[in-house]
Design brief:
- The structure is a single chain.
- The chain is of the alpha/beta class and 299 residues long.
- It has a single domain, classed as Aldolase class I (TIM Barrel, Alpha-Beta Barrel).
- 30% of the residues lie in helices and 21% in strands.
- The strands form 4 sheets. Strands 3-4-7-8-9-10-15-16 form an 8-stranded parallel β-barrel, surrounded by 7 helices. A 4-stranded antiparallel sheet has the order 5-6-14-11, with no helix packed on it.
- Helix 6 packs across helix 8.
- It starts with 5 loop residues before the first strand and ends in a 12-residue tail after the last helix.
- The relative contact order is 0.16.
Length: 299
């Protein structure tokens, strides 16, 4: 009996634990360390149409109970993924989720069209990218722009569409509703919070871009609140993330309304963290004679 299987956008996951985008590569990197087929799914590193070398300078900075990152969406491009990486991800034996970013509407649309030829399970649309045509404001800041870009991508993609929301918005509930109105099959949240670090020796910001994304256990209570708000504002599935490091953390997100969860920063500290979470969820369900779907959205 599999107490942990869940259905996400019509895709059957063996369990609700997904490796978060940007923290697990394409999965093949970790396959040398453990059996990644045990995971419910893998969301690949964020892809862009033309690829990117990422940001110069320091990219990762440890903080109390978390980390700051300024990777800059380093990736080989959508075409390279389709040609070289997709088949290798598929061979890992778990659900394949592709995270797609872009700096213009055309970037998103062309990227989504190219991914129609790829054997993937879910397309995760990252709307946290700055829109170069709108002065650098992220697509995901305003509900109107979320709904617009979601609708346009929905029109061209053949895959189930999940929209990854940024916490840098006035109302996460309104953002989730906008994604649903645009035709999203699910939403995932939250992306990193905007943070900063200063090197007191040099008296300069640590990162070349000054600000960076904060993730890790420090943000979990805020992320949990946002997932709860989003899950009670929409009828489509919500995938929760933000500081999840233990099975108890994952249970809280599921009880708050997350159909599945993603784990990122915890993997940096412990590469097998997700396996411990899966084992812990199994043990909790067995001890309580239940399955994971029975505790979904109970808060």
């Amino acid at each position: 009996m599999n107490r942990l299987s869940v259905n996400l956008c019509g895709v059957e996951l063996k369990n609700p634990v997904i490796a978060a985008s940007g923290t697990f590569g394409f999965g093949t990197e970790y396959a040398e360390l453990f059996d990644v087929s045990r995971l419910g799914g893998i969301s690949c590193k964020g892809l862009t149409l033309g690829g990117s070398r990422g940001n110069p300078g320091i990219r990762v900075w440890e903080t109390p109970s978390g980390m700051l990152n300024s990777i800059g969406l380093e990736n080989p491009s959508v075409p390279v993924f389709v040609k070289r990486e997709c088949a290798r991800m598929r061979s890992l034996g778990t659900a394949v989720i592709v995270n797609l970013g872009g700096h213009s509407e055309e970037d998103y649309l062309r990227g989504a069209e190219l991914l129609n030829s790829a054997d993937i399970d879910i397309l995760e649309l990252n709307v946290s990218c700055p829109n170069v045509l709108q002065g650098g404001m992220a697509f995901g800041i305003m509900p109107d722009s979320i709904e617009h870009i979601t609708r346009r991508v929905r029109e061209v993609t053949r895959h189930p569409l999940m929209v990854k929301l940024t916490p840098q918005t006035a109302s996460i509930a309104a953002a989730a509703q906008a994604a649903q109105a645009g035709g999203a099959d699910a939403v995932s949240l939250v992306n990193t919070f905007l943070g900063m670090a200063i090197d007191t020796k040099s008296r300069k910001p640590v990162f070349n871009n000054v600000y960076a994304g904060l993730s890790g256990s420090a943000i979990m209570p805020i992320a949990l609140r946002m997932v709860h708000q989003a899950a009670h504002a929409v009828s489509i599935p919500v995938v929760g993330m933000g500081g999840i490091a233990t099975a108890d953390d994952a249970l809280q997100f599921i009880m708050a309304g997350a159909r599945a969860i993603q784990v990122g920063t915890a993997t940096f500290a412990n590469p097998t963290a997700m396996l411990h979470i899966i084992d812990g969820l199994n043990a909790w369900c067995a001890a309580n004679d239940t399955d994971i779907n029975e505790i979904y959205k109970t808060i």
